UniProtKB/TrEMBL annotation:
Pfam families: adh_short. PANTHER family: DEHYDROGENASE/REDUCTASE SDR FAMILY MEMBER 7B, DEHYDROGENASE_REDUCTASE SDR FAMILY MEMBER 7B. GO terms for cellular component: membrane. GO terms for molecular function: oxidoreductase activity. Keywords: Oxidoreductase. This is Short-subunit dehydrogenase. PROSITE patterns: ADH_SHORT. The keyword Transmembrane does not apply. It comes from the Bacteria. It comes from Roseiarcus fermentans. Belongs to the short-chain dehydrogenases/reductases (SDR) family.
């Protein structure tokens, strides 16, 4: 079991659930997020389970502040598990509309650049120690891109590709890289839009699945399996049929 864990996006959603899931006596948690009050609440839950907690109220787009916090954290407790779960989504405002592409850069700044900002200070240190795990967050949407959230799907597809390439690269250094690809999880992010949400899971159930996958050092931790296999299968279908299936699952942002 990892003893020094860094989690971004820890104030809510899957990050919060993972912080509580991993909290235990002897575990040092570094929790990063933008909401100080929510982070404090998560920290209290983790401390009640016996963990030592360090909080960083930092936007993952703030490279300098994030790097300083991560280096300081790593020097205090050598990080053996980095979970980069911070992310945002974007869907079309109404049925038949297209997404606001002027906001796409902000989404990529969080989902992609934020992930790179998190990885850059710690990955060289973990490789130098020749141990540790890194969990990056993709999505099943990377394999079946929803027509109503193309920028989100593209950002997650990029993370999947980056994670698999980095896994191969870091293997020789003793560092395991996994990419987590959830389906629909009952979080604020999933609640921000209306659509069909088959096989919806609780955040706590998802956190347990992620922990098991990381313990087994899986390359791709995708769940629920039925939705993942369906997403991979639709990639083999003729494009007109695939398009018809994807358009059957329309999503619109909630006000």
């Amino acid at each position: 079991m990892p003893r020094a864990i860094v989690i971004t996006g820890a104030s809510r959603g899957l990050g919060r659930a993972l912080a509580v899931e991993y909290a235990a006596p002897g575990v040092a948690l570094a929790l990063i997020g933008r909401d100080a009050a929510a982070l404090g609440a998560v920290a209290r839950l983790a401390e009640a389970k016996g963990a030592r907690v360090r909080i960083g109220r930092i936007d993952v787009r703030d490279r300098d502040a994030l790097s300083a916090f991560l280096v300081e954290t790593d020097e205090a407790d050598a990080t053996d598990c980095l979970i980069a779960s911070a992310g945002v989504t974007m869907v079309t405002p109404r049925a038949g509309a297209v997404e606001d592409l002027t906001r796409a850069q902000d989404l990529f700044d969080v989902n992609l650049n934020g992930m790179m900002n998190t990885l850059a200070p710690l990955a060289p240190r973990m490789r130098a120690r020749r141990q540790g795990q890194i969990a990056l967050f993709g999505s099943i949407a990377a394999f079946a891109p929803p027509p109503d959230s193309p920028s989100y799907a593209a950002s997650k597809a990029a993370i999947v590709a980056f994670a698999l390439a980095t896994r191969a690269l870091y293997h020789a250094d003793g560092v395991s890289v996994s990419v987590v690809c959830p389906g629909f999880v009952d979080t604020d992010m999933t609640g921000s839009f209306d659509s069909a949400k088959p096989f919806l899971l609780s955040a706590e159930d998802a956190a347990r699945r992620i922990r098991r996958g990381l313990a087994r050092r899986r390359a791709v931790i995708a769940f629920p399996r039925r939705l993942y296999y369906a997403a991979r299968f639709q990639q083999l279908l003729p494009e007109p049929l695939r398009r018809r299936i994807l358009l059957a699952f329309r999503a619109t942002a909630r006000p």
